[in-house]
Amino acid sequence: MGAYGGTAEASMPPYDWALLSDLTNDGTVHFVDFAHFANIFTDQEDELPGDFDRDGDVDFADLFLLTEDWLKQTIWHEIQFTRYQIRINS
């Protein structure tokens, strides 16, 4: 953790700003994230992107965490999508 902004504390994102299982970092957990997850399923290494529980492997416990986030969207993704819809309909 860094000292962002000249403070000794690490910063935390606002509520609904990030999703644990959003492997593509596009603001929503969907099939593309699952495809990335499936590619590394059963791998055992430190710091794997699909190792959501940080126990050193990608297993069914991590799949459970992915399903809990399934089709959820971050607040910023919802705002972007709404703006896009407004532009199309205008």
TrEMBL record:
Q: Which InterPro entries match?
A: Dockerin_dom_sf, EF_Hand_1_Ca_BS
Query: The organism's lineage?
Result: unclassified sequences, metagenomes, ecological metagenomes
Q: SUPFAM superfamilies in the record, alphabetically?
A: Type I dockerin domain (SSF63446)
GO biological process terms on file = polysaccharide catabolic process
Q: What is this protein called?
A: Dockerin domain-containing protein
